[in-house]
């Protein structure tokens, strides 16, 4: 149990973006380092950095994931993934209303069509509704056509409420999948703060973490549902998260106000990072099974 939690923690640390250049520096051998001392190599490296920097800036601008907003204003953007859920989402809406908090909900299309009343109530309460794909499959495992179809079907399910913002399922993303979301007109939203609410954490631990990570312009990720979980420790029970959130907002309300992601983006400069992450080896079989269910439902049923 503990080992699995540690492994998971390490996996999420991997999410933090590492640029190719930084990666190359950290993996450079001693022999490479001495060779690097020669003026010729240093010059070449400097030259390639100068040539690459406009390209890097363009990639950051158009393909970078929004992880926070640079602002002095005391604002936080709370985001909730994997809903709507018929029980947890309405309970969450009540907590948010108590603190006059607006939030952003990254919803799943196949659940939105099952609970249209919950989608409507969320939108009518002033929250932003955004795209978290049609059925929560890992985008790097899919073809380009399947990715665009996932975005389109979810958009259709969320109409007329969906904003052109997307969070990739499991936060899995490759340059190719980012290109497909860009082509479909979506900006990708990551996060800068989380409380590991997908794991078996006590609510007091999550509350402390939420309060400790709150900074002006932060984007916080939480879950009002857990859909197509592939983690053995995933907590489908959302009550500990709801308790943690209630207590954290009680503490934070004095110093922060809580806004939607579009509101936050109007309050400062978006911080964009190159954010690429593929599925972990131990998650892959379960993710491929989900994908097979989607592609050939009949065959998947027989295989089970
Ligand atoms: Zn998700």
In whole angstroms, how far apart are the ends? 26 Å
Shape: globular
What's the architecture of the domain at 66-273 in CATH terms? Alpha-Beta Barrel
Number of helices: 14
Helix content: 40-55%
- Structural class comes to alpha/beta
CATH topology value of the domain at 66-273: TIM Barrel
Secondary structure: number of strands? 10
What does this entry look like structurally?
With 304 residues, this protein is an alpha/beta fold. The chain is built from 14 helices and ten strands. It has helices spanning 2-13, 20-26, 30-36, 39-63, 88-98, 109-112, 116-124, 144-158, 175-183, 203-213, 239-252, 261-265, 284-295, 297-303, and strands at residues 65-70, 75-81, 104-107, 128-131, 162-166, 187-188, 193-194, 218-223, 257-259, 269-273. The strands form two sheets. Strands 2, 3, 4, 5, 6, 7, 8 and 9 form an eight-stranded parallel beta sheet that branches. A two-stranded antiparallel sheet has the order 1-10. Zinc ion binds at residues 81-82, 132, 136, 169.
What keyword list fits this structure?
eight-stranded parallel β-sheet, 49% helix, 304 residues, alpha/beta, 10 strands, 14 helices, two-stranded antiparallel ribbon, globular, TIM Barrel, disordered N terminus, single chain, binds zinc ion
Summarize the structure.
With 304 residues, the chain is of the alpha/beta class. It has helices spanning 2-13, 20-26, 30-36, 39-63, 88-98, 109-112, 116-124, 144-158, 175-183, 203-213, 239-252, 261-265, 284-295, 297-303, and strands at 65-70, 75-81, 104-107, 128-131, 162-166, 187-188, 193-194, 218-223, 257-259, 269-273.
């Amino acid at each position: 149990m503990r080992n699995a939690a540690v492994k998971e923690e390490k996996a999420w640390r991997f999410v933090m973006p590492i640029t190719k250049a930084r990666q190359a520096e950290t993996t450079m051998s001693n022999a490479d380092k001495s060779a690097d001392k020669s003026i010729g190599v240093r010059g070449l490296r400097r030259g390639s950095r100068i040539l690459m920097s406009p390209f890097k800036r363009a990639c950051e601008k158009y393909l970078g994931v929004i992880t926070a907003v640079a602002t002095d204003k005391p604002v936080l953007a709370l985001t909730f993934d994997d809903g709507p859920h018929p029980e947890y989402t309405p309970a969450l809406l009540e907590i948010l209303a108590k603190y006059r908090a607006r939030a952003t909900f990254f919803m799943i299309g196949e659940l939105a069509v099952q609970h249209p009343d919950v989608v409507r109530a969320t939108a009518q309460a002033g929250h932003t509704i955004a795209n978290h794909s049609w059925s929560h499959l890992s985008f790097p495992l899919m073809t380009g056509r399947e990715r665009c179809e996932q975005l389109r079907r979810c958009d259709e399910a969320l109409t007329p409420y969906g904003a052109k913002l997307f969070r990739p399922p499991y936060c899995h993303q490759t340059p190719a999948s980012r290109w497909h979301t860009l082509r479909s007109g979506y900006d990708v939203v990551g996060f800068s703060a989380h409380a590991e609410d997908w794991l078996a954490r006590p609510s007091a631990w999550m509350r402390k973490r939420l309060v400790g990570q709150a900074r002006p312009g932060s984007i916080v990720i939480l879950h009002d549902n857990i859909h197509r979980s592939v983690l053995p420790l995933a907590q489908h029970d959302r009550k500990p998260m709801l308790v943690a959130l209630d207590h954290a907002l009680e503490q934070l309300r004095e110093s922060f106000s809580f806004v939607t992601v579009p509101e936050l983006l109007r309050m400062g400069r978006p911080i964009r990072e190159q954010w690429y992450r593929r599925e972990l080896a131990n998650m892959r079989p379960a993710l491929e099974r989900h994908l097979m269910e989607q592609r050939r439902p009949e065959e998947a049923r027989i295989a089970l």
